[in-house]
Amino acid sequence: MKKYAVFVCSLILLLSAFWACKPKAGGVASKAQDLFSLLPEDVQGVIAVNVVEGMKIETVAEFMKKAQEEGEFKEFVEKTGIDPTKDIRFLAVGLKMGGEKKQQGVGVVNLSYDKEALLAAMRKDGDVGEAEYNGVTIYSPPRDDVDEEEMRLAFLDEANIVAGSPGLVEAAVDVFQGRKKNAFASAGLKPLIKEAKKDSLVWGAVLIPPEALKETSGQVPMLGSVDAVQSVLLSFDYRDKNILLEFKGKGTDEAKLKQVADMLNGLKAFGGMLAAEKPEFGELMSKIEVTSGKDHVTIAAVLPEDLIKKLAAAAEDILPKTDPETAEEPTEEDLSEEDQYEQPGSF
């Protein structure tokens, strides 16, 4: 009897450990990848964002501090009741690509929010459509343009909002209610998720549809070997005032993957030639490493924060500056001249 009791206790402990390790569907998430349990199995790509840790980056914190002083940010917080600097925890995105249909996406945000405040903010911008789907209200936010992509939004529970393409939002509701499997069950994504650098601020895994790269390589001969890339792992992180980037293309044709690496190194060398005119651009090229192996080609870089600031400043110098207070409104004559170029058959 004593042995039987020990066995039962051990079994209970084992099952408890198993369920503790399983991603929780819904509620407050403990890490970004928990939200993959709310994305449908048939997505072809997943991206996870640790918003909490991202807000701690010095540059991001400074940017958000400046944004808080501006009217638009204050207005957003007042209208929605959401302060991005402290209310948003994690974000997960699911992607469906290629084929005859347009690319589709769905995002799940794990946050503290006031449903009524959000709905009130949406309704101030226009009519909000409502439809029931398996007991869940799915909202259609107002669109600025009839040609704009349709979007749907649903409040899954007190901590999770799903938004994106109509079909994928409904699929996420099905996953939440247990009628469909989630992204962790994807045979293609599962090994990639396992391999991904999940301790990064932003990371993802994407399956590349063969037809997508074949079309690209057919149009640009220089990219002839790029169809060897069957999937991509990506990561973005920030450590010791350095930004760490990595894109790893996975495949099975080692020779073609090496050709892709050689092509990328050629482009890198060409970019380095601009160093005389733009030293910061040459410094950027020197920080990028392209390597290949039996089953991968990798682009990696460790970019000092100071370099990012230099590049941002250089970009500002290149972009034309316009003073909104002195900018002239287009005249009727200007508009009529523009319209003639928009007529069918004109060039």
Question: What features would you describe in this structure?
Answer:
With 347 residues, the chain is α+β, with helices and mostly antiparallel strands. It folds into two domains: 23-196, no CATH class; 208-320, Heat Shock Protein 90 (2-Layer Sandwich), CATH 3.30.565. Helix content is 39%, strand content 24%. It has a twelve-stranded antiparallel β-sheet with strand order 4-5-6-7-3-2-1-8-9-10-12-11, sandwiched between helices. The protein is globular, with a radius of gyration of 24 Å.
Question: What's the topology here?
Answer:
Elements: H1 2-21, E1 45-50, H2 51-54, H3 58-68, H4 71-80, E2 88-96, E3 104-111, H5 115-124, E4 129-133, E5 136-140, E6 152-157, E7 160-164, H6 166-176, H7 189-195, E8 202-207, H8 210-219, E9 231-239, E10 242-250, H9 254-272, H10 279-287, E11 288-292, E12 296-304, H11 305-318, H12 332-342
Antiparallel strand pairs: 1-2, 1-8, 2-3, 3-7, 4-5, 5-6, 6-7, 8-9, 9-10, 10-12, 11-12
Helix pairs in contact: 9-10, 10-11
Condensed summary:
With 347 residues, the chain is of the alpha+beta class. 39% of the residues lie in helices and 24% in strands.
Q: How many beta strands in the DSSP annotation?
A: 12
**Uncertain spans:** 1-23, 335-347
Mean pLDDT: 82
Order of helices and strands: HEHHHEEHEEEEHHEHEEHHEEHH
Strand content: 15-25%
Number of domains: 2
Global outline: globular
Main sheet summary: 12 strands, antiparallel
Question: Which structural category fits the helices and strands?
Answer: alpha+beta
Q: Span between N and C termini?
A: 90 Å
> Could you estimate the helical fraction of the residues in percent?
25-40%
Number of discrete helical segments: 12
Strand order of the largest sheet: 4-5-6-7-3-2-1-8-9-10-12-11
Whole-angstrom Rg: 24 Å
